[in-house]
Amino acid sequence: MRWLLTFLLGVAVGAGGLFAWLRQMPHQPAAAPAVAANTGSLPAPAGPDIESTLPPAPKVTPDLTELDLPLRPSTTALPVDSGAAAPALPAGKLMVPVDGMALANIKDNFDQPRGAERHHEALDIMAPKGTKVLAVADGKVAKLFTSKPGGLTIYQFDPTEKYAYYYAHLDHYADGIKEGMDIKRGDLIGYVGATGNADPNAPHLHFAVFELTPEKQWWKGTPVNPYPLLAQ
């Protein structure tokens, strides 16, 4: 009996020591279960490419009426050393375009230099502001146009649409003038002015003749000297 009491006492003492030792151990949380990597998943989609989602910028074609064309029509150069000459209309075919102006009072300034690289390629017919401007020949009004250099202008095609007549610096158009209308030699089409880059103190008509290209572009052609073409 004595030995049984001794054994139970030893067991009790050992259990107490074990309990005290466990209380002195630091507390560590249980590790979270490992999550297996999802190697079969797709990568997150990238954000949208902004440039690729925008619609393409519209291609804008400028309105020719908004452009500033030069005072003289643009020209097509003749081939170098080709022996080709500028086209010429029969002499004396065109009427003097300024009412009451004598041919003897008009100077041939077609070849007058304009800067270092070009010539006038037109006639400047000096006249008081408001003087009538007349159609030099039969034809049609191809274009009514306003630009910074030429001011108020008229482009007229001859009946064959091979040549164009150009009237610039007009003060205003004659009543009823409109694009596409047929006009006759001597018809009133406008009035002398100083619009565009003309000197306000020197009103005049800037008059030019040019041979049209096959495309019949009213602003483009080969210049022809108007002076020999004028008849009183």
Automatic annotation (TrEMBL):
Coiled coil: none annotated. Pfam families: Peptidase_M23. Its EC number is 3.4.24.-. Its cofactor is Zn(2+). GO terms for molecular function: hydrolase activity. It is an enzyme of class 3 (hydrolase). This is M23 family metallopeptidase. Keywords: Hydrolase, Metal-binding, Metalloprotease, Protease, Zinc. Gene3D superfamilies: Glucose Permease (Domain IIA). Residues 119-226 form the M23ase beta-sheet core domain. Transmembrane segments: none annotated.
